[in-house]
Amino acid sequence: xxxxxxxxxxxxxxxxxxxxxxxxxxxxxxxxxxxxxxxxxxxxxxxxxxxxxxxxxxxxxxxxxxxxxxxxxxxxxxxxxxxxxxxxxxxxxxxxxxxxxxxxxxxxxxxxxxxxxxxxxxxxxxxxxxxxxxxxxxxxxxxxxxxxxxxxxxxxxxxxxxxxxx
Length: 166
Fold this sequence. Notes:
alpha+beta, 3-stranded antiparallel sheet, 3 helices, 3 strands, 42% helix
């Protein structure tokens, strides 16, 4: 009798691993997709920061307009693989001149003016996972900001008096 009970034991537990996997798989899959989406969020945040910095660098030369800065940011994002630019906003402020902006023309900045560039992109444009339980508010924005000093050339002073001849 002891032999018959013992031989039934392993047969009763044969499908237990499959049942446990079936119960835990939705939870494990949810965690995996969540980690994947957070990784995407970090990646896009870095790309957006880099695009904003490139726009700020373009604005700081003193030779480029607001449209040039906007084009630089858009091109950087497109080259980085972000093709859905619907809702992209690029704002340029001159903080030194009392926050002149949001469409400030950086070519009008004077030397060492502080230029602030803000870039915003809807999160729904860049997310990978469109599952119902991971739906975010459509108005959720990813934002980046860069502050750069204007390197606009100063005019050469014309009032310099040459030293006297000896």
